[in-house]
Design a protein that fits this description.
106 residues, mainly alpha, 3 helices
Length: 106
């Protein structure tokens, strides 16, 4: 009897990307610090922190979460993607409040 040998097809190696965790943690830390400074009354800047919360705290954390997913780190992907939502949500809610519009109630 002949023995058949099967080989798996070679797969293309996916190039590694840099660790996105420092970027995600930096975005979380800066957004949290700016919101805390506003709540403590340390600034008179009004709602200047909203731009950082939307862009850096929301979008960059979401990107860091997707890059963690790309690196096959499920915990990092879940953590950063989940923390991106409140940063963008609180910023958009404060934008509605400062413009005179009421936030939707359910």
């Amino acid at each position: 009897m002949a023995v058949e040998e099967t080989r798996a097809a070679p797969t293309a190696a996916v190039p590694a990307i840099a660790d996105p965790a420092p970027l995600g943690l930096g975005a979380f830390a800066l957004t949290t610090f700016l919101l805390s400074a506003k709540n403590a009354g340390w600034t008179d800047g009004g709602d200047a922190w909203l731009t950082y919360a939307l862009a850096y705290g929301g979008l960059v954390q979401l990107l860091a979460g997707m890059w963690e997913f790309r690196n096959r780190n499920v915990f990092g992907a879940t953590a950063f993607s989940t923390y991106a939502t409140p940063a963008s949500g609180s910023a958009s809610a404060c934008t509605r409040c400062s413009s005179g519009r009421r936030a939707p109630t359910s």
